[in-house]
Design a protein that fits this description.
This protein is an alpha/beta fold. The protein has 13 helices and 20 strands. It has helices at residues 20-29, 48-55, 72-78, 90-97, 104-111, 124-128, 130-142, 167-178, 213-224, 249-259, 303-310, 326-337, 378-390, and strands spanning 6-11, 33-38, 59-60, 82-88, 116-120, 145-146, 150-153, 159-163, 188-193, 198-201, 204-206, 228-233, 242-245, 265-268, 275-277, 297-299, 315-322, 341-346, 358-365, 370-377.
Length: 391
């Protein structure tokens, strides 16, 4: 998602500093080059070695360590596409708002002329302090993006507004800022994700191992490229676009029936159960002395084929998870279903597919051509799929 982009993360001296380790990983998984600078007090909460290992770059702390002809704060400012300051303490916020440059981080911000995102975290009384609020208004007027802290229990023992906002919110804000080009703007894209669940009785069900990660990566990527995204998923997730939670194959079909006609593209990344129990028990099925139990299964609706039969202008993309004869089975499926594209992946491999952050797929087109996408993280695969569809 962020290939070729450099994200500069500034960490200040707050207890939430430890959370930024995961934020670094999120940016790295999206293929961003991550650089980190810290205030000296941030080192009380997280170590330099940890940050260097996660970012795979040197971590800047002291202001006058000059490795080349450029002053260090100018090198950092010129070399990044966006700056994220998280957690941002009341002290650092007030310094930035008033142009004070007394450490490396504040000097870099002063020289930074690209987007800056500030995610404050502090005691709730400090957050409500009039001077802090005035400084935040000043920064917002200067064009900085302020992601307000959340309400909750604070490390200091208080309860109120002051917790660092969700890391996903920081990540999404950065992606949105970096996505200046919107090749999918005005496109209405529906994406399905996760494995459907078919109840047997109130405590048992039939399902599969799909984690929903590929579908969510596709939805995140489409949103970052400007699309109007509607994610229909069996996996609970909070996103800045429309998320509709469903459970069974029939619920997924109903959700698609209501939205399909207004869509430009539908990507069926969900692993839809082929069968369901013919007669679902309203009560828990009790164990008996019998050694066997018989469940009668009936076919679920073939959602992908149904969409291909009723489509007018939509591009329909299917997924094909196979444990053997990948391309042969995929060719048969795209012929039977009639979709425009079919994404085939090999679920027999442990390093890709279900539950993994990585995938390796082949894209089959209805004209018979095949393109293989080599193993990469699922966000990279998602972007390459959209490049193939809209290229």
């Amino acid at each position: 998602m962020l290939s070729g982009k450099t994200v500069l993360i500034g960490i200040t001296g707050g207890i939430a500093a430890y959370k930024i380790c995961e934020l670094i990983r999120m940016f790295k998984r999206a293929n961003a080059n991550v650089k980190v600078i810290c205030t000296p007090n941030a080192m009380n909460f997280v170590t330099k070695l940890t940050l260097q290992n996660l970012s795979q770059n040197e971590v800047g702390i002291e202001e006058f360590e000059i490795p080349d002809f450029k002053p260090e704060h100018i090198s950092y400012a010129d070399g990044a596409d966006i700056m994220v300051i998280a957690p941002a303490t009341a002290n650092t916020i007030s310094k930035i708002a008033n142009g004070i440059c007394d450490n490396l981080l504040t000097s870099v911000v002063c020289a930074f002329h690209k987007p800056v995102i500030i995610a404050p975290a502090m005691n709730c009384n400090m957050w409500q302090n009039q001077a802090v609020q005035e400084n935040l208004k000043k920064l917002a007027a200067y064009g900085y993006t302020i992601l307000e802290p959340e309400n909750g229990f604070l490390a200091c023992g208080y309860e109120g507004q002051g917790r660092l906002c969700a890391l996903e919110k920081i990540f999404d804000a950065a992606v949105k800022k970096l996505s200046q080009q919107k090749p999918l703007e005005w496109e209405k894209i529906i994406i399905t994700a996760g494995g459907t669940i078919e109840d047997i009785d109130p405590v048992r069900y039939i399902s599969n191992y799909s984690s929903g990660k590929m579908g969510i990566a596709l939805a995140d990527t489409a949103y970052s490229l400007g699309a109007d995204v509607h994610l229909i998923t069996t996996v609970s997730t909070q996103k800045p676009y429309v998320v509709e939670k469903v459970k069974s194959a029939r619920e997924m079909q109903n959700a698609l029936d209501e939205t399909f006609q207004n869509a430009d593209c539908v990507i069926m990344a969900a692993a839809v159960a082929d069968y369901r129990v013919k007669q679902q028990s309203e009560q828990k099925i009790k164990k008996t002395s019998d050694e066997e139990i018989t469940l009668t299964l009936v076919k679920n609706p073939d959602i992908l084929k149904h969409l291909c039969e009723i489509k007018t202008h939509q591009t329909v993309v299917g997924f094909c998870a196979e444990s053997e004869n990948l391309i042969e089975n995929a060719k048969e499926k795209i012929s039977q279903k009639g979709c425009d594209y079919l994404i085939a992946n090999d679920i027999s491999r442990k390093d890709i597919g279900f539950s993994s952050d990585y995938n390796e797929v082949s894209i089959l087109k209805k004209d018979g051509s095949i393109k293989k996408l080599e193993k990469a993280d699922k966000y990279t695969i998602a972007r390459q799929i959209f490049e193939e569809i809209y290229g």
